[in-house]
Amino acid sequence: MNASNLLVELFVEELPPKALQKLGDAFAGVLFEQLKAQGLLASSESRLTAYASPRRLAAHMTEVLPQAEDKAVSQKLMPVAVALDADGKPTPALLKKLAALGADASAVASLQRQGEGKAETLFFASTAKGVSLADGVQKALDEALTKLPIPKVMRYQLQDGWTSVNFVRPAHGLVVMHGTQVLISVKTLGLTAGSATHGHRFEAKVNPVVIRNADSYAEQLREEGAVIASFTERRAEIARQLQAAAERVGGGVCPIEDAALLDEVTALVERPNVLVCEFEKEFLNVPQECLILTMKANQKYFPLLDTQGKLTHQFLIVSNITPQDASAVIEGNERVVRPRLADAKFFFDQDRKKTLASRVEGLGKVVYHNKLGTQGERVERVRAIAKAIAQQMGDAQLVQQADQAAMLAKTDLVTDMVGEFPELQGTMGRYYALNDGLDVAVADAIEDHYKPRFAGDDLPRGNAGVVVALADKLETLVGMFGIGNLPTGDRDPFALRRHALGVIRMLVEKDLPLDLQTLLVSAVPAFGNKITDATAQLVEFFYDRLSVN
């Protein structure tokens, strides 16, 4: 049998961008593994290429057989003592079993025997016909759709107006081609396999794009449909265009590095076109973290940084259209981003009208946990724990700095900027502390008390930051264990494992003269009668973290 290459494409409405790459890899991977399991791949050299664009999931597989080879099958029947009577003739039980397998008494002589004595058993040897490619693809496709890691399923009606199906997005086309042959018997989600797909919504040269053969898919989509079907190729093209655009701007600027943003933008466009835009320089007076976050999170733009890592007034957009005159696209994006930046500037200006110290009282109105009280109560506990740690580590100055930083560390939670952008908590606290004229060590500690936020993150810069970071994490751990709010195998909503690892890293990498158990014991009194003492359980929890890292 001659092997040919196989193409399977499911054409759908716009897929969720953050899940696109995972959906594409899973769709192609399950198809490939299922065909391999059914013996439909001609050799171990068969190769898989996954495609994923905003409106399609596809897979291309090489050396796929039109039908799997027949296989010799040996099926266990029953013990000889049950299958044959005293004269060696087949019993009714054996004849019934053979009939179920499509055989009769004439097959008795060819039955194979295995084992000895009472364990001797009869086996029926037969040949299982290899599965056809159409049937194999149908099974593989059904399996692939069942196993897709869909973040949220949609239920929608088919064109008949009665039948409803569940899928990540409504599907509108199915292509299944083995070489040049369309496997028209394959069906799914109310669709029948064909050879036609669709390209770019606005820039495709022809619509529909009729695929000539399985191997021409990517090329035809690119040339006729104005679509780069491969997620990997599209991502690389965007990265190339971003760098080229930055070089055109000059001055050594470079686009901000953000792999997650690049992945998301790759999932939003079918044929990328990078353009340079800009905003008013007056917005650069706002902390660059605010501007960068709003451009990345809300607009999916790539800010440009200078050689010192400072934000410039120019940024890059990835458009999904390529007009001859891109001025309208550029002006439109500049017009859209301006209110976002203006909001950030407004929040920053308003927040600076009040000192952080004046916001401490407001934390008493913010609930932290129904069993542990408000953020205001929590701040007092962190202050008490920080004071005890600072007294062991240093002099009166460190005690004063740590106490002031612990008192103000959470105040930016009640600012307008952090209310709009929670990711900036700590960062904005430092800016506002400096605006209030506080010591740099205190401002740094306010930002750093969240560190380390993740594996490999930086540790706090100064001793005051280390003290408050330890106090903050110990307060969380002691409090949550004290009320029995423990992490489970798949849930850790208060990031207790991460907090424990953060404490361990600071103690070890900063070479602090502190004893872990003493720290835990000294933190308990800060809670009064709100908790029970779970120090022993916490110590074991810390040792477990050490054993798995």
Give the SSE layout.
Layout (H helix, E strand, L loop, with lengths): L3 E9 L7 H18 L10 E6 L2 E9 L6 E9 H4 L8 H9 L11 E3 L6 E8 L4 H15 L6 E4 L6 E4 L3 E8 L2 E2 L4 E2 L2 E2 L3 E2 L11 E2 L6 H7 L7 H19 L4 E2 L3 H8 L6 E6 L9 H12 L2 E4 L5 E9 L7 H25 L15 E3 L3 E2 H19 L2 H13 L7 H5 L6 H9 L4 H9 L14 H20 L13 H14 L6 H8 L11 H13 L2
Antiparallel strand pairs: 1-3, 1-9, 2-3, 4-6, 5-6, 7-8, 9-10, 11-12, 13-14, 15-17, 16-18, 17-18, 19-20
Helix pairs in contact: 1-4, 6-7, 8-9, 10-11, 10-15, 11-14, 11-15, 13-14, 14-15, 15-16, 16-18
Question: TL;DR of this structure?
Answer:
With 549 residues, this protein is α+β, with helices and mostly antiparallel strands. It is built from 18 helices and 20 strands.
Overview of the structural elements:
The protein is of the alpha+beta class and 549 residues long. It has 4 domains: 4-68 and 132-223, Alpha-Beta Plaits, CATH 3.30.70; 71-128, no CATH class; 232-351, no CATH class; 357-547, Hypothetical protein af1432 (Orthogonal Bundle). Helices cover 41% and strands 17% of the residues. It is built from 18 helices and 20 strands. It has helices at residues 20-37, 80-83, 92-100, 133-147, 217-223, 231-249, 259-266, 288-299, 327-351, 375-393, 396-408, 416-420, 427-435, 440-448, 463-482, 496-509, 516-523, 535-547; strands at 4-12, 48-53, 56-64, 71-79, 112-114, 121-128, 154-157, 164-167, 171-178, 181-182, 187-188, 191-192, 196-197, 209-210, 254-255, 273-278, 302-305, 311-319, 367-369, 373-374. The strands form 7 sheets. It has a 5-stranded antiparallel sheet, with helices on one face. The protein has a 4-stranded antiparallel sheet with strand order 15-17-18-16, with helices on both faces. Strands 4-6-5 form a 3-stranded antiparallel sheet. The chain is flat, with a radius of gyration of 33 Å. The relative contact order is 0.07.
